[in-house]
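Action item from last meeting closed. Structure (395 res):
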């Protein structure tokens, strides 16, 4: 006899999940204590960058392979500064993929530019074919996203943007350490932006980083980050123009240095989880993610698509899985253009893949808070819930 779904009063398949463990722990706090208290060698913040902030930036740039790196308060402010540093024409358009965390598109509004949405490809990243259709003379920049840690199709995208001489910003907020044809994401376009939010592959609590190898952009970023100051410590109250206060604190920088040392190990765990989900879920009536050749993903999340037939049932399925005790998220339940600040009547944006995918997607966590022995139970829960919904006669 089939067991009753937990959401209808049956017994949940997963009764216990270990308590959440913060990704920032003893190692990070020892280093903060050591530098800031024991050695008393650091100021808590400095608009020109304390020595730990500069060390974090140099180490991150070296890791990514870029000439420069500059810390910011978040991935969102990294994207905002990246756009402003390019000095794009007023009222020009910036192309972004329809599916991402909302900050990707919001940053364009922060920079007082217009957003135009491009559909996604089979890896959930900006589709070069749709890019080719939507790019025109009004477009001044393209932001692409390495969604769920899988690099976007950079060769095809750059082929289009280079023809038009349009700068490319990589939103690498989910892809720390991912590689595309041997190059780290963030270091392939003109500017790369990273987030160090709690859930990311490495974290400073909140925080961000911009990488570039273009000196002019770098100098502009330094100035924009600190109120428009020309980045001259001897002239702290002189301004080149408009700017912001987007400086990271020294404590976050020190945490970042420790986390960067752990990134390889943290990413290895995510890779193992990804592969475990992949093998455990094979045979289920779902679409599994693929990793392209010559590509190293950062395995930020494990996305699956439920069957087309159940497209209107995703939220019920998610509720049923949660009732079974399954840890999951829905990243993202709608294309970004459904948010009120972008919404236009008559479906002006036309991104059918993003609409289909966002109605069918469920994402599973790969970080080391999820223990490997839970994956077979997640598989059983998926099997149980999908079976129920596939065999119900929904009229
Ligand atoms: C793809 C993407 N872009 C931008 C951001 C914004 O980063 P933050 O939360 O650090 O502002 C995030 C993080 O949540 C993200 O996942």
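Sequence:
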């Amino acid at each position: 006899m089939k067991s009753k779904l937990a959401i209808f009063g049956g017994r949940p398949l997963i009764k216990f999940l270990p308590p959440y463990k913060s990704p920032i722990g003893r190692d990070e706090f020892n280093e903060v204590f050591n530098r800031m208290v024991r050695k008393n060698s650091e100021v808590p913040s400095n608009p020109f960058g304390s020595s730990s902030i500069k060390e974090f930036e140099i180490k991150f740039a070296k890791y990514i392979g870029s000439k420069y790196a500059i810390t910011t308060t978040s991935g969102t402010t990294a994207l905002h500064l990246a756009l402003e540093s390019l000095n794009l024409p007023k009222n020009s358009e910036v192309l972004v993929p329809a599916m991402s965390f909302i900050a990707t598109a919001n940053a364009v509004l922060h920079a007082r530019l217009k957003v135009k949405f491009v559909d996604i490809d089979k890896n959930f990243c900006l589709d070069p074919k749709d890019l080719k259709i939507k790019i025109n003379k009004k477009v001044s920049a393209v932001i692409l996203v390495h969604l769920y840690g899988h690099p976007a199709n950079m060769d095809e995208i750059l082929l289009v943007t280079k023809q038009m001489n349009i700068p490319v910003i990589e939103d690498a907020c989910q892809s720390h350490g991912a590689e595309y044809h041997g190059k780290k994401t963030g270091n392939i376009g003109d500017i790369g932006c990273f987030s160090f939010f709690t859930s990311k592959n490495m974290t400073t609590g909140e925080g961000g980083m911009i990488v570039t190898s273009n000196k002019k952009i770098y100098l502009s970023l330094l100035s924009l980050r600190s109120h428009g100051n020309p980045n001259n410590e001897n002239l702290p109250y002189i301004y080149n123009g408009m700017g912001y206060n987007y400086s990271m604190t020294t404590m976050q920088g020190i945490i970042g240095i420790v986390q960067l040392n752990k990134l390889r190990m943290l990413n290895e765990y995510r890779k193992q989880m990804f592969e475990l989900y992949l093998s455990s879920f094979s045979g289920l009536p779902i679409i599994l993610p693929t990793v392209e050749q010559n590509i190293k993903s950062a395995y930020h999340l494990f996305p699956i698509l439920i069957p087309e037939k159940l497209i209107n049932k995703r939220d019920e399925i998610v509720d049923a899985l949660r009732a079974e005790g399954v840890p999951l998220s829905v990243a993202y339940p709608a294309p970004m253009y459904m948010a009120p600040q972008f919404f236009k009547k008559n479906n002006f944006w036309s991104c059918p893949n993003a609409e289909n995918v966002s109605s069918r997607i469920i994402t599973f966590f790969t970080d080391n808070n999820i223990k490997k022995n839970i994956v077979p139970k997640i598989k059983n829960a998926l099997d149980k819930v999908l079976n129920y919904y596939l065999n119900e006669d929904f009229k």
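Note appended to the action item: Residues 250-281 form the longest helix (32 residues).
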